[in-house]
Design brief:
heterotrimer, A alpha/beta (423), B alpha/beta (500), C alpha+beta (126), A: 423 residues, alpha/beta, Aspartate Aminotransferase, domain 2, three-stranded antiparallel beta sheet, 13 helices, globular, C: OB fold (Dihydrolipoamide Acetyltransferase, E2P), six-stranded antiparallel beta sheet, 4 helices, 35% strand
Chain lengths: 423, 500, 126
């Protein structure tokens, strides 16, 4: 090949680089190792973690069983190693599955349109805020303190330089959004009010009242969720203008924080304001149904500085995992799965002292009585169980409590052990 | 003569909702070991949904068959070359998939105690160190979820540094050859965008840059090698122009596959850059994501990196949140950890020797293709190509054939198209990046296809203009899709509903 | 396609038909052919003010967006609502049925700064 190019050695390929930019040393790292050594390396690292411990952590990332079919499907090279479906004629597999994903997200959330996914739930929140700002032409955003603390942090980081002030709304004694505080802060400058349900404490918010307040002031209601399984059983946020959330519960491994798959969905009239990729139905030149990426003019590669967002990627492979999961469980299964989660969490809650006496799904705040939450967790770790999230780091007023989550994977014996430790 | 593909029967398949049958299930949950709970009593009547309307109901096997059939409609790296410029469509090693699924890593919860997460934290630490070495930078964050997200993080950091110095400034300079994410990102950080013209060699015009560089300019976003696959030979001078007036230089690392082991951005003056782990570092594209956008920076910018950062505490790793100058979080938790594992596995498999060799192979493959294609297609710029080469459709457009047509005809030959009409500074661009993964056989088949199409343009241009001809799906009507967007399936109204 | 003699033109490829103190504005045939199949048009609301040289809307094809620049200043009286259902009219009849907006001129003197049909055609190399 070098001969074809007319070179004698491959070093000539970089001869044109200026001498003062060349890196002529060796990279300071080991030489390449064998596949066996790589597998072994990661196995040893994994062994240093809480391998196989039952876990009662939720707080935005949930332990749900991953049906075997999920990896069987996404491991196919045609899905795993394919590119973004810009060339519709040879990407119909990806396009159809994303169209199904978009449809299922609408069906689950009660919205009219949904995009092909966002990076994760946390980054979808500022995207919704920016959508609301564009739509209402107002510039302020209110966010409930019961929205996931890290999601709120991301909202601030993302909006700080776009002239969008963010203000928080307090929560009431029952763990729900404090309506009076919302009323006080809801001015004509507010573009969006962002709430989460079930909220960070696992509690269901009363969306009807919130929606009436918010929309009567001309602001948009943005509803977020972190536990997608809840949507199998609870009434979806139909009152919302925009819904954002995290689908990690649907067959995405917790994987120490990522990658996950976020969603953004909205009412029909806001379709052109949606960020990210959208798959649309159309026909091919022979008249058969076909799918393609559409409304691309919203996106960065065309609009550049006037784009609705700078986002380029969607989480296609993970959206596919979620779609397979939703297909495996189906209409009945998602409901039954949610019912199991409800039963497990309520069993555990019944055995401990709860902070709030308000309807919750599969997470709740429990007081740890004499001990501190860290002490409880240390004791549980001795028994090879991971306890709940000590809340003091995010809510100093709740430093004597932890957020416990039980799912269909939680076993009765382990829950009894946890309850005993909190007694 | 089309050598690489032949006809084949491919299954049809409706949408899941169209083959749904009430009552069909594909799952089985274990029996409850705790008492069941009445949903309405626990949640309140208004909070329980009646059902998920029109949700699909299919059996397990129907699910598997459905997605298997869909998969056969896709092109993929595993099937053949993707000559897409700047996408770096290299082999996605299967060992990466295996190690990412190691139980203790895949099931780790980000809020587990640090004592029980040391393995995960070690992965982050080791990868950060490796990427810092590769880029010649001082520190790395692995928090951003993708390249564009990394760009956002980097510009945010530049702004934070300048604010700490007293003046964030107003503008970011972006070459007219830049990827669309660059100006979109600058706007999101509150900066106005000013375009810098490329010169006749396809590189940043240093004189134009010097003229535009004022005290109002916060920084320059540059891609190197640039989007025509050419190394910015004046990069040191460019960085000097920016630094002399207190500006910073951000490098879009999308083309890092041309530099690993042979040049380090930190050495030639870049202040902050992102890497696309799903490009240079082999993590799978998966049909559009996930990616991961590592960001590397020099010492001056390190205090502004996203929070938290790893710190050593005796013989343990801990997350340090005490970073008063940090720009904050750009996403929840620590990063796309599952993608990081894959990138680290790739680096370990190649090592110091292998990484450099991969780069050299990538350059060899790109230049080999350039040599074979130059007699037939107009090379956009004479400057030496690195890992990708860019042509224009100038020789074909007199026959009424544009780059988009040639790309569609390439599909009939069994390849995915190259990058069409980008960068915008080239009229009718064809951007081709083979990566180091491809062997001579596949490259020769590609060159043969392109040469054959060039001949078709002369002899039978209509054949090219109306391509593709051999795909299962004929040319897709994107115009109607945009005029009347249908972005979800809806059930047909039943006869009884229509009668209402 | 002919460029009507009684229209005035701009270098940004808009046309204006002046009738008394009212102007009808559209994009030229050259513009629509550069854009390709038009899929969407974004127009201001009646009552909005437009200022000469500034953008007042945009026209989208599948792969491109083009801003529309105001050839004259004024107040929007009427917009062509039919275009939202059939944006393709911009491709077939950009100088007639697919007018974009009608305005009440704020500064009639601005008309003199516009291009005559022959000058516009020379500009686009027609």
């Amino acid at each position: 090949m070098l001969a074809t190019i007319g070179l004698r050695s491959e070093e000539e390929l970089i001869a044109h680089l200026p001498a003062d930019v060349r890196f002529d040393k060796r990279l300071n790292m080991n030489d390449g190792v064998s596949e066996f050594e790589i597998v072994d390396y990661f196995k040893n690292l994994a062994a240093q973690n809480a391998n196989g411990y039952p876990s009662f952590l939720g707080a935005g990332v949930y332990n749900h069983y991953r049906p075997v079919l999920v990896d069987a499907v996404v491991s196919r090279g045609e899905f795993l190693t394919s590119y973004t479906p810009y060339q519709a004629e040879i990407s119909q597999g990806t396009l159809v599955s994303i169209f199904e994903f978009q449809t299922m997200v609408c069906q689950l959330t009660g919205m009219d349109v949904a995009n092909a996914s966002m990076y994760d739930g946390s980054s979808a929140v500022p995207e919704a805020a920016m959508m609301a700002v564009r739509i209402t032409k107002r510039d302020k955003v209110l966010v409930a303190r019961t929205v996931h603390p890290e999601y709120r942090e991301v909202l601030r980081t993302s909006t700080q330089h776009q002239g969008i002030p963010v203000e928080e709304i307090a929560y009431a004694k029952n763990g729900r959004l404090e309506l009076d505080d919302l009323k006080k802060k809801l001015t004509d400058q507010v573009a969006a009010v962002i709430v989460q349900t079930p909220n960070f404490f696992g509690i269901l918010e009363e969306l009807k009242e919130i929606a009436t307040l918010v929309q009567s002031k001309g602001a948009l209601l943005v509803v977020a969720f972190t536990e997608a399984v809840a949507l199998g059983l609870i009434e979806p946020p139909r009152e919302a203008d925009i819904v954002v959330g995290e689908l990690q519960s649907f067959a995405i491994s917790p994987s120490y924080g990522g990658p996950y798959v976020g969603i953004i969905a909205a009412r029909e009239k806001y379709i052109r304001q949606l960020p990210g990729r959208l798959v649309g139905e159309t026909t091919d030149s022979a008249g058969y149904r076909a799918f393609c990426l559409t409304l691309a003019t919203r996106e960065q590669h065309i609009r550049r500085e006037k784009a609705t967002s700078n986002i380029c990627t969607n989480q296609a492979l993970l959206a596919l995992m979620a779609t397979v999961f939703m297909s495996v469980y189906g209409k009945q299964g998602l409901r039954e799965l949610a019912e199991h989660n409800l039963a497990k969490a309520h069993y555990l809650a019944g055995k401990v002292k709860c902070e709030f006496d308000t309807p919750f799904f599969n997470e709740f705040v429990a007081r740890t009585n004499g001990k501190s939450p860290s002490q409880v967790n240390a004791a549980l770790a001795e028994k090879k169980i991971i306890g709940g999230l000590p809340l003091g780091r995010f809510y100093p007023e709740l430093k004597g409590a932890m957020l416990l989550c039980a799912t269909e994977m939680s076993k009765r014996d382990d829950m009894d052990t946890v309850a005993a430790e909190l007694a | 003569m089309i050598k690489k593909v032949s006809k084949h029967i491919v299954q049809n398949e409706p949408l899941l909702f169209e083959q749904s049958s009430p009552g069909k299930i594909g799952y089985q949950l274990p029996a409850l070991d705790v008492p069941p709970v009445d949903a309405e009593r626990a949640l309140g009547k208004g909070h329980v949904r009646s059902e998920i309307e029109d949700f699909s109901e299919v059996s397990e096997f129907e699910t598997l068959r459905h997605f298997t059939r869909l998969s056969t409609w896709n092109y993929a790296i595993d099937l053949g070359l993707y000559p897409l410029g700047s996408c770096t469509m290299k082999y996605n090693p299967r060992v990466n998939e295996l190690v990412a699924r190691t139980e203790g890593l895949a099931w780790a919860h980000p809020y587990q105690s640090e004592e029980l997460s040391q393995g995960c934290m070690e992965v982050v630490a080791v990868l950060e160190k490796a990427l810092a070495e590769i880029t010649g930078m001082n520190a790395v964050t692995l928090q951003p979820a993708a390249g564009a997200h990394g760009e956002f993080t980097g510009i945010l950091m530049i702004r934070a540094l300048l604010e700490a110095r007293g003046n964030p400034r107003k503008k970011i300079l972006v070459p007219d050859s830049a990827h669309g994410t660059n100006p979109a990102t600058a706007m999101m950080v509150g900066y106005a965008v000013e375009n810098i013209k490329s010169n006749e060699r396809g590189m940043v015009d240093v004189a134009a840059l010097a003229k535009s560089m004022t005290d109002d300019v916060a920084g320059l976003m540059i891609t190197n090698p640039n989007t025509v696959g050419v190394f910015e030979e004046n990069i040191r001078k460019i960085c000097g122009v920016m630094h002399d007036k207190g500006g910073l230089v951000y490098m879009d690392g999308a083309n890092m596959n041309a530099l690993v082991g042979i040049a380090r951005p930190g050495d030639f003056g870049i202040d902050v850059m992102h890497l696309n782990l799903h490009k240079t570092f082999s993590t799978p594209h998966g049909g559009g994501g996930p990616g991961a956008g590592a960001v590397a920076c020099v010492k001056e910018l390190t205090p502004f990196l996203p929070s938290p950062r790893l710190k050593r505490d005796g013989n343990l790793w801990r997350w340090n949140y005490d970073l008063p100058q940090s720009v904050g979080r750009v996403r929840a938790f620590y990063g796309n950890f599952g993608v990081l594992v894959r990138a680290l596995a790739y680096i370990m498999a190649h090592g110091s020797n292998g990484l450099r060799q991969a780069t050299m192979d990538a350059l060899l493959n790109a230049n080999y293709l350039r040599t074979l294609l130059e007699p037939h297609y107009q090379i956009a710029y004479k400057a030496a190509s690195m890992h990708e080469c860019v042509f224009s459709d100038d020789r074909q457009s007199p026959m009424g054939v544009r780059t988009g047509d040639i790309a569609k005809r390439l599909i009939d030959y069994g390849f995915h198209p190259y990058t069409v009409s980008f960068p915008l500074i080239v009229h009718g661009a064809l951007m081709i990046e083979p990566t180091e993964t491809e062997g001579k056989r596949e490259l020769d088949l590609f060159a043969d296809a392109m040469i054959s199409i060039a001949k078709e343009v002369e002899d039978t241009p209509e054949l090219v203009k109306t391509a593709p001809h051999n795909t299962r799906t004929a040319k897709v009507d994107e115009v109607t899709a945009a005029r009347k967007p249908i972005v979800r399936w809806k059930p047909e109204p039943t006869a009884s509903k229509a009668a209402d | 396609m002919t460029y009507p003699e009684n229209y005035k033109y701009t270098k940004e490829h808009e046309w204006v038909l002046i009738e008394g103190d009212k102007g009808t504005i559209g994009i030229t045939d050259h513009a629509q052919s550069e854009l390709g199949d038009i899929v969407f048009v974004d127009l201001p609301k009646p009552g909005a003010a437009i200022n000469k040289g500034q953008t007042f809307g945009s026209v989208e094809s599948v792969k491109a967006v083009s801003d529309i620049y105001a050839p004259v200043s004024g107040e929007v009286l009427e917009i062509n609502t039919g275009l939202s259902a059939t944006p393709e009219k911009l491709n077939s009849d950009p100088h007639g049925e697919a007018w974009l907006i009608k305005v009440k001129l704020a500064k009639p003197g601005e008309i003199n700064e516009l291009l005559a049909p022959a000058d516009y055609q020379k500009y686009i190399g027609a």
